[in-house]
Amino acid sequence: MSKRDQRRQSLIALATTGTIMNRSRVIDALEALSRMDVGTYGTCIDCNERIANARLDARPEALRCIECQHLHDQYLAA
Ligand SMILES: [Zn+2]
């Protein structure tokens, strides 16, 4: 199985077992799956840079690179 298929499996698992989990991760997983279909998966939605492989390994549903995620989290917390 390719790395991409492994990530797709992880995303589907996240999306389908999500009721007991953080809802926003479920929404992100669904978004990431649709981005796989259109070919933009792995690209930051804010700055359009590639998201690091290590980050996608840890969180396959990540939609932002680590820098943009920090900025986003600060914005939400403010
Ligand atoms: Zn970014």
Describe this structure in words.
The chain has 78 residues and is an all-alpha fold. It has a single domain (3-77), classed as Four Helix Bundle (Hemerythrin (Met), subunit A). Helix content is 62%, strand content 0%. The chain is built from four helices and no strands. It has helices at residues 3-16, 23-38, 53-58, 66-77. The termini are far apart. The protein binds zinc ion. Residues 44, 46-47, 49, 64-65, 67-68 line the site of zinc ion (ZN).
Number of domains: 1
Question: Per CATH, which architecture?
Answer: Up-down Bundle
> Mean pLDDT score, rounded?
92
CATH class: Mainly Alpha
The SSE string, one letter per element, is HHHH
Structural class: mainly alpha
**Are there runs of 5+ residues with pLDDT below 50, and where?**
none
Superfamily at the CATH H level? DksA, coiled-coil domain
Biggest sheet overview: none
- What CATH calls the topology is Four Helix Bundle (Hemerythrin (Met), subunit A)
The gross shape turns out to be: globular
Instruction: Quote the distance from N terminus to C terminus.
Output: 42 Å
Bound compounds, each kind once, are:
zinc ion
Strand content: under 5%
Count, helices: 4
Helix content: 55-70%
Please compute the radius of gyration using only Cα atoms.
Answer: 12 Å
The count of β-strands is 0
